[in-house]
Structure formats: structure tokens, C-alpha cells
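User: I've been going back and forth on whether these two constructs are worth ordering. Before I decide, could you fold them both?

Assistant: Sure. I'll take them in the order you sent them. The first construct and its C-alpha cells:
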Amino acid sequence: MYTRPDTGVQNGSPGAEDETEATLIRLELNKSIEARKLNQRTGAPTTDPEVVIPYGAIVENVERDRDFERFTYLGEVYRCAHTLLASATDPQAWKAQGAPAAESAAPAAPSAGQPAPVAPGLQWAPVDSSPVPLLRAKVRGGWLIAAASGTGLTFYPDPGHEWDGTSLA
């Protein structure tokens, strides 16, 4: 028999199941990921190519397995790197379900007395255009132009940022 030093509970004694049972969680992906399918019986990776798990998919029974996360998607068992799954899920969802936090994907909390770091972001402004609504953001070396519908993105070189958004006719 083995006695756990942190709890004093022995394997095989009443209450041991509660102490060793893993917390299984359920997460929604906020981006697509690639994962390796595992053999149902042995848990070993198969020789099949990696499978794309799509944006919005629900992965269940997420468990840490060394540097990987093992999970179930549509009844099949998969694994991917912890950092990949952490970057494709909301860190708050991990905390809400009592799972080990996705610390590698979440920024560290600022220490007391120091301001939180400002995350860089694009400042999008509408561009006066005829039939297609466009947005532009000032970036190094020019402008990033996006269709407001989200269907297109391009870079317009303008190192001095002199373009006022009108046609150059």
C-alpha cells in the first residue's frame, strides 16, 4: 500500500478514489488546431496524419499528459501540445472548470505597484469608399486595408502615411 504524503490517504482505502480522480474539463476552441489521433485501446499515437479540429469545436475530457493535452473530440481521442491547446482556448474557461491554468498562453499578471502592460492593437478607421466599406490601420511602412465584411486584407505601402483614403486619380 502507498500513502500519499500530501494527504495521508492510502491507495485502496476509502476516499482514495476522490483524491486521485482527475478533473475532466470541456473547452470550446477559438481557433482551429491540428491534433494527433490516439489509439482508443493503447493511447499510443496513430500513424495517421494530424487532424484539423475546427474553430468552435468542443473538446472534452481534457487531461494533461506530460507536454501534451489529451482530449476527446467527436468520440475519438486526440492529443496536441499543451501550448497549442492553451492558445486556442479561453484561459478563463480553464479556471472556471478547476483545471490547471493555461499559463503558457496567458500573460503573467503584473506585480503589485506596476501598471499592466499595454497590449498593442490596431486602430481601425473607416475609409470613404464607394460600394465597398473599407477600414484602414496605420502600420509600419504604410496602411493595412481590410474589407469591413472581413473578406479581404491588403497592405498599401506609404512610408510617410500621407494617403488620406481617397483615390489617387
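The second construct, handled the same way:
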Amino acid sequence: MSLPKASAKRGIVLAAVVAFTVFGAVSAFASTLNVGPSALSAGDASVASCRQSGTPITAEYTAAYDSAIPGYKVTGVTVTGMDPHCNGKTVAVTVAGASNTLLASGSATYDSAGSNTSVVLASLSATPPVADVTGISVAING
């Protein structure tokens, strides 16, 4: 069964109108995204580094012996090398195990008082065995 030519042309015109309408709406929404150093959006913007000049940002975990393991467990993370202009930003860490399995996480607000360049995360979501830790990731937000 074939459609009459006029009906087929109307279908093509209708499809074109819908396509242009959807494309226009998506473009309008995208043009309202804000780009800046404190927001995650589409686009690009210059963002100042929170790394102190000439010093890498490093993360080290603190450990305490736990006779229940028996062995050492991670009790906190210290992030060093922060630039004082990042005062008030949130430092989030994740402690990972094999295959990037999340073992623990935590966050703290960086306070640059007294030329402090470190932030200590003394409270994590868990205290995994040190033997299971394969890495630490750091994100600075705000």
C-alpha cells in the first residue's frame, strides 16, 4: 500500500519542523550554562590552581594498629602543598583499593590561617586496612 504523494510530503515537512524545533530548544538551553571556577558546566574558563607555587599537592594517609585485623588501618589523610588563596575550598579525598574500589572517602574545608598549606581529614567514611590501599585521589572544589 503506498501513500499519496501529498501525504508523504506533509510527513517530510512535519519531520523537518520537529527537527528544527528540537535543535533550537537544545541550543537555547546550552547558551544559558554558566562557566566559572566554582561551577561545573559546559565550556571553558581559566581557573587558578590550588597548588602552591613550586610544590606539588601530595596526599598521605595516617595509620593506626588494629588488633582485630591484625594490622594497620587508615585513620585519616593529610593533603599538603595547598596555596593559601584557596582558603575556604573543600578538599575531598577517596581512598581506593584494587580495581579502583572505593574503600573510604572524606572531605574537609581548607583553612590557610598562619600560612598553613595542609588540610587534615581526620574522619573518613571507613578505616580500611593499609594493605588494601592502592591509591588516594584528591579533588578541590568551591
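Notes on the second construct follow. Confidence is low (pLDDT under 50) at residues 27-31. The helical segments are 5-30.
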